[in-house]
Automatic annotation (TrEMBL):
GO terms for molecular function: hydrolase activity. Transmembrane segments: none annotated. This is Alpha/beta fold hydrolase. Residues 29-267 form the AB hydrolase-1 domain. It comes from the Bacteria.
Amino acid sequence: MSELTYESTARELATERGVLRYHEAGVGPPLLMLHGSGPGVTGWRNFRGNLPVFAEFFRCLVLEFPGFGVSDPTDEHPMIAAPAAVTRFLDGLGLGQVDVIGNSMGGIVAARLATEQPDRVRRLVTIGGVGRNLFSPGPGEGLNLLVEFTEDPTREKLVAWLHSMVYDRSLITEELIEERWEQATDPDTLASARRMYGRKALRAAMAASADAPPPWAMLHRITAQTLLTWGRDDRVSPLDMAIVPMRTIPNAELHVFPNCGHWAMIEQKTAWENAVLSFLMRKDEAR
């Protein structure tokens, strides 16, 4: 396979609510990859290191959520806009059933898709994020640092947040800091982030959802075979959050990676890829 670059994999899909941008690589069964949130995040940055491995077996589709500076912007809360964007994306490409990998926020969106449109998700893989704190304080350290950066975006606060994402701080290179800083401080992207993680926005979201069932309470409706992957040392969504989805999703299994923070697909790249590929390619048992 030729080298997978940003330019060679970049694609666009026009929809009735703006252009959705994405990256595509490989042939085979469709595999939708959904990124997380945070300063300077993109789908490409979350999954670029994993694409060559998965593209050997799947048609990989890395969607860029509206509100993060790549796809056309949205006036909505990015988390609210994301599920509809996924549906528009799948419909626009004429895709019925897919496998889905979701990192953090992307995992929450993927779980909602599997809950509300069960026929569209064959197998589901999440990376942290899904569930609720049982023993650890909530929100986690990483989320608190994310709010602090969103309220007052300085380079020092960005670095503090990035350090909370990993077990091994040597992964936070100057190159990574600079590419994240450039996008995170773009005025439109920052405004979108404040709709999501500003303190005022968080209080409003809590008030608006006070009478609605929380997402973790709906996990028992997921019928897809599910693999929950988690960093043992995750300081954004601590490991105890995995207990509820592990117990309530009927066909769920949990894989925990040692010496690993919130970015399991980056920090434990080879082990994570091996576990996920084995799960996605496992033959269905006769029932």
